[in-house]
Amino acid sequence: MVKPFEFDEGQFALARAVESDVPALVALLADDVLGAHRESSELEPYLAAFREIDRDPNHLLLTVRDGEDNLVGTMQLTLIPGLSRGGAKRLQIEGVRLASTVRGTGLGTALFEWAHEHGRQQGAVLAQLTSDKTRSDAQRFYSRLGYQASHEGFKRSL
């Protein structure tokens, strides 16, 4: 169950994604300098991934819709239990995208505030995310929210 989300006098609604949202979510992910090159037009892998995400209670894939029911944002929240930091649970935030039409409106800040509160309510003591090194605007935004570039991330194709 997704807790109510109010921003801009109710002009935006937050909901758990459903399978019929997948094409619009993929389009949002692809409408981006990096996403244009790494996202695919083949929907089946995205549908399979959605089903796996949706089955796992530690994952929450969110949609943000405007007052005209247009999908204008998304983020995936994952709760990760761990032994380090005294058995701390972490909130991993991934796949954050806002449509260009709503960037700079404060919606992103409100969405992150909602996500942080969700994490706290689920017992998370730390929120973490990664951002591509080329996304300088996103990194400035995350810094304004209090995130620190405290670690160097590594990835490897399998």
From TrEMBL:
InterPro entries: Acyl_CoA_acyltransferase (IPR016181), Bact_Acetyltransf (IPR050832), GNAT_dom (IPR000182). Pfam families: Acetyltransf_1. Keywords: Acyltransferase, Transferase. It comes from Ornithinimicrobium faecis. This is GNAT family N-acetyltransferase. Residues 12-158 form the N-acetyltransferase domain. Gene3D superfamilies: 3.40.630.30.
